[in-house]
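Recap quiz, item 2
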Amino acid sequence: MKINIFVTLKPGVLDPQGRAIHHALGSLGFEGVGDVRAGKLIEMEVADDTDDQALDAMCRQLLANTVIENYRIERA
Amino acid sequence: MKINIFVTLKPGVLDPQGRAIHHALGSLGFEGVGDVRAGKLIEMEVADDTDDQALDAMCRQLLANTVIENYRIERA
């Protein structure tokens, strides 16, 4: 089973990578770009009997820092 | 308009971050995890009249390295 996990910074957490992208897009002449936030996408192949609880545990223990990051699990 | 851009390594390109995640999940006792690939997610707020061509240009010029990465643009 294919799983996509999206890890994003919580609102209010400073995002230097997003700021750098925003600045660079402006320098390249792209207009109308507002807020930019950079996050992570983790694509995993897991056993079909992997339950939501296990996926949640993976995120909490390893993939996301829940102090500053949110995560979303999507079964592809 | 909110845009999500997913940047992933092309198949066949070595992914040390994905390998490290795979290894760490194994060490933590999670079983049945197969291939893991790490990618990027970029969330942007752009002007409503931004066309697909401009978004494509942003990806090609800055956000993705098209030699080794694929990108997918999603209007949220």
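The interface with chain A takes residues 6-8, 18, 21, 24-25, 28, 30-47, 49-50, 54, 57-58, 61-63 of chain B (CB under 8 Å).
Residues 2-75 of chain B form a domain with the Mth169; Chain: A , fold (CATH 3.30.1280.10).
End of item.
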